[in-house]
Amino acid sequence: MSHNTFGHLYRVTTWGESHGPALGATIDGCPPGIAVDADAIQAWLDRRRPGRTRNTTTRNEPDTVEILSGTYEGRTTGTPVQMMIRNTDQRSKDYGDIAQTFRPGHADITYHQKYGLRDPRGGGRSSARETAARVAAGGLARAVLADLLPDLTITGYMVQMGDKRIDRARFDRAEIARNDYWCPDAVAAAEWDDYLTWLRKDDHNSVGAVVEVTARGVPPGLGAPVYAKLDTDLAAAMMSINAVKGVEIGDGMAVAALTGRDNADEIAMGPDGPEFSSNHAGGILGGISTGQDVVLRFAVKPTSSILSPRASIRIDGTATEVVTKGRHDPCVGIRAVPVGEAMMACVILDHLLLDRGQTGGVRGTIGEGRSLRRG
Amino acid sequence: MSHNTFGHLYRVTTWGESHGPALGATIDGCPPGIAVDADAIQAWLDRRRPGRTRNTTTRNEPDTVEILSGTYEGRTTGTPVQMMIRNTDQRSKDYGDIAQTFRPGHADITYHQKYGLRDPRGGGRSSARETAARVAAGGLARAVLADLLPDLTITGYMVQMGDKRIDRARFDRAEIARNDYWCPDAVAAAEWDDYLTWLRKDDHNSVGAVVEVTARGVPPGLGAPVYAKLDTDLAAAMMSINAVKGVEIGDGMAVAALTGRDNADEIAMGPDGPEFSSNHAGGILGGISTGQDVVLRFAVKPTSSILSPRASIRIDGTATEVVTKGRHDPCVGIRAVPVGEAMMACVILDHLLLDRGQTGGVRGTIGEGRSLRRG
Amino acid sequence: MSHNTFGHLYRVTTWGESHGPALGATIDGCPPGIAVDADAIQAWLDRRRPGRTRNTTTRNEPDTVEILSGTYEGRTTGTPVQMMIRNTDQRSKDYGDIAQTFRPGHADITYHQKYGLRDPRGGGRSSARETAARVAAGGLARAVLADLLPDLTITGYMVQMGDKRIDRARFDRAEIARNDYWCPDAVAAAEWDDYLTWLRKDDHNSVGAVVEVTARGVPPGLGAPVYAKLDTDLAAAMMSINAVKGVEIGDGMAVAALTGRDNADEIAMGPDGPEFSSNHAGGILGGISTGQDVVLRFAVKPTSSILSPRASIRIDGTATEVVTKGRHDPCVGIRAVPVGEAMMACVILDHLLLDRGQTGGVRGTIGEGRSLRRG
Amino acid sequence: MSHNTFGHLYRVTTWGESHGPALGATIDGCPPGIAVDADAIQAWLDRRRPGRTRNTTTRNEPDTVEILSGTYEGRTTGTPVQMMIRNTDQRSKDYGDIAQTFRPGHADITYHQKYGLRDPRGGGRSSARETAARVAAGGLARAVLADLLPDLTITGYMVQMGDKRIDRARFDRAEIARNDYWCPDAVAAAEWDDYLTWLRKDDHNSVGAVVEVTARGVPPGLGAPVYAKLDTDLAAAMMSINAVKGVEIGDGMAVAALTGRDNADEIAMGPDGPEFSSNHAGGILGGISTGQDVVLRFAVKPTSSILSPRASIRIDGTATEVVTKGRHDPCVGIRAVPVGEAMMACVILDHLLLDRGQTGGVRGTIGEGRSLRRG
Lengths: 375, 375, 375, 375
Known about the structure:
The structure is a homotetramer.
Chain A: E1 5-6, E2 11-16, E3 22-28, H1 38-48, E4 65-69, E5 71-72, E6 75-76, E7 81-86, H2 108-115, H3 131-148, E8 153-161, E9 164-165, H4 186-201, E10 209-216, H5 230-239, E11 244-249, H6 260-263, E12 267-270, E13 273-276, E14 284-285, E15 288-289, E16 294-300, E17 310-313, E18 319-322, H7 333-359
Antiparallel strand pairs in A: 1-2, 2-3, 3-7, 4-7, 5-6, 8-9, 8-10, 10-16, 11-16, 12-13, 14-15, 17-18
Helix pairs in contact in A: 1-3, 3-7, 5-7
């Protein structure tokens, strides 16, 4: 990771500001021969798009992706893939009044302090709009993964909004796509809907959320000691998403309260290899995947752009109160779901390529199992 | 981060196995002219050393560091600094019986699956012993930081053992060094001592912990969008420590339950620059430091090496029960405190160098403040 | 350097194929606050543009650059700068017949062997058209260098075409821009013009060249042992340009015939610091700049796309003869001059940022000199 | 490449000074399961060792390598391999008088200017002694290559000493190991011997050389556009060796004098795949290997440490004359031969791993050939 680049072999560099002419992702290291076109990427972008529900920003952009390089006759060539999204709905006037003011809880002040200037239009580079480029990069990663790991599925969903958590007993994977909140619990989804409507309309406020992302079908052996662990790179990937303040793998922060006896995921031999009695580890031991589901969660803070006044200062040091009008999500966690999935896809692909680079993808056998190739 | 290397400009590569001849850290990119010698590094290592209390492993090694390169007449020369620690207490026989067995919750199985072989002596590369090299690297980073940021202080401490948390009302920084648990709450420390003694002697068990690390005196402007954010790199640094399963910045996972109004750290102009009414953000906005305390926490799982039997399998696929004798910490979180501090030091130094590389360290002014150099 | 990325802190990723929709450069790590706009970049691109002389390809494209991100109100913001050039003159039919054939001396065959497919239109990614993106990146680097090192000048010129070398006694810097060949020797320029016209029209052939690039005003202290030496990175930068087969620093290959007595650049103290009696070293000792002119040369092979038939094979293994029609430069060395300058600019800027990152840019004094800051 | 690290996936970081306690190589990313021990590495080091002939430095060190990590029971484990060489013959007094003086043509002055201090003992980090660590790293790379590419052979030899070149008509591969100069031409070897003896004893001088390194058995498809080309990385690898001032691939600088017709390596279909009528390209087209021999040359300047007086200055700016006593090679090109081979081995292995990471090592077929796996 180097400033705006992410990944070791599947390297994603995103670029662009919220209200500049365009934004996009430059992807270097994509395997060749993969069938992909703009429509395939567009499908993932459409999932993330704001304007999807009444409780997300009303900014309405088609977010149409163009593939400018790296494919020929519908297949990747192994050269850099440039995916560009034009910004078409740039109502700059909405943001004009904040150019001299720092919104509390926002990157306005730190960009100014670091760079001595900032693009104030829509948050510039610090806008959540940057995550559209991540979703495009994740879409390409999924096309590659469909070829290399056809059994892999990556699923993101919200498990908490404000202090309202889902009931795991009601967890229904099919429900996730049915409501506006990527919520696997229909009862919670309804409750969240009421809460968020009140929060936005009456309370002029916003709220945080917890997103969970799972990957099923990850082969054992991905990851590497000790600073390119699979969980190290997943933690970095998720923490780099706007507004994320915490990341958990498996049981996460709750492992602190466990004893060693409880935390041990016991192992038995099954017909297809080792099987585990539980998954406290979230599918990762010693930084390397076990073959179980990889499970992580991240917490998204409430957006700082709210209609309620907050005390702040201007660049000239004078005091002011900030009230952010314009189009802002009351719960940015909702849009973070496809972003978390995209980052999961990029990390898994990157580690798949790293693994076959170093080891050739040959797996140590257990029992009478054959030595299998990964990827 | 690339396998066993950490950092962008202050690049740390650790090497070595628990029971090999030696382990160490190769550090590239250290600024020149910094006064440092082996004694200065040794002081940090002594803080981490096992055998410190009755409730840490009884493995008793002096952990003596040798500086093999990169200094001349007591100052760094700007060339790679090699710091080596010989392994002197290698009772390999303690571990011989586990060479064919996978401990539940341990990296045994994933190393085998990835590499097809592993060094079973004391956990090999996956042993917490690797963290001694991190502490050495952090010691060198602190020597540089003492020169570049003399007001910086980095403090780690435990805030939770099992389900027993400190009482923040009793928080006393001076208490941290007085007890065996880096605990800032004397009452909690006593409680933990009783609990851990019982856990080890009577329950043959282990337990998790939460460590908090704060850095005071971090200048504003460190960090960079969007994949080398200060919090991205801190999350990666902490998640790469053995047994860590969760990382939080500022309010961490709890931000999910906050509203935007509550979460906004309001800003006022103070005599020396902006001041914040609160620090939900943990000193980082948009991935860039604000000048407030940088605050993070990470959760350490209970060690998987316990005297209680757990079901598992052997390499040949047959079932077995694992009981790990030998010398193991009942709460590895204790030893993780100096390690977390060391990683914080490395990340802050790395970002200080990155910042002055890109920006020259000149800070955007607020109010009538002068433009100041960082680092 | 990682596939399509170049540089450590000033990181340039180029993307795009010769006949795709567009190509460009994604630049990460650019210092903030630098005055630059599309016109400033365009000026450098216009110098490189084919169609400039009767002896370069007649492909006629405006090569208009758009800056899509990373600037605000005419200054860089410190975030990624995306510079895109649309391909407007894509006569794909010129190249259609070579999709199944490998041109001798061309990357056709190796791209096929590596990736299993290739974009045959105009050479795809292996086309010299990629160098337009380098010139854009170099233009931005020059804008930064104008701010940080105002006395720096970078000058490229051709010193040999075929077996015809310039006469160093006639070297005239002012002459370089006056002829079509970036030739500092007016007599040689006239001779080259006749030769190249004959070669193209009558001989249906092409020819190689040697380009020299010098940088005056490079401060001492840039570069680093032992794998990021200034000359290591310059050699990589130049060798990465299409068709380059050799790189020399200072006296280059000729140092083999020198004795130690002859090769020693003797040192004396001048009014502004050390002065050297000669510059066999090309301004670099131990990988670090001395403050003298940095001098390098690189050899460009003749283009493989010629009207004379050459024996080859098709993808199906059958024999064929290749005659390349279409628009091709008889001496690609000419267009390599601005490219070599651009790479020099990128490398020097990158090392300037690296140096101030690690050392703060403070220079060791000699004599009574003050300790000076670099950059 | 980042300061003292070299390579993308097979990453070599060398450390250590000429007269410090030790030097070595930290290697990250080595494939697991490779049979290797200290003796195998030692064999390569013994080839490079000074004191080998009467015309190399009389410094006499055993250069005994210790493997401190990354192997278990004689096989690599996939974790970092630390190889250390103790410095045992550190006659520091030989160098004491040069601590205040800058040798012309040496890195003394640039290290001082960059870092503000330097280790003057034996050249410190800038000593050719660093190359011992490269040879160790290359030895490990060869062990891996013996497993992955059993038909690969890498051969280095000197083709020029001073202005005396070998006669290619007398080229005899078997002769290389028979003389003290890695010379494939027995007549030239005898001539060089006389010349060098005179140069050392009577002329108190030194001389440059050209080294050629070839790799036979490199599969097609290694390398990547456009900044991690195989020739880009080879050029960087060779230019990073002490005293190297020029690097050539294939015909190198001589391509400038060739026409396109002459330079085209014509292709025909052979029984095992494409065959080429010539190898002007040195086995690399578009930065990717063709399957032909990879051929490169590099020029080594004469050592600057000679017994003849040269004018210089001291740190305090006063004038002086430098005469370097002590043990120095009159032609460092001799010892550069095993170093060039080692760097070739490291680059080829690195690109083999990169290639199978990105492409899985599957090669595009030509004719009826099967799609073959590389590595």
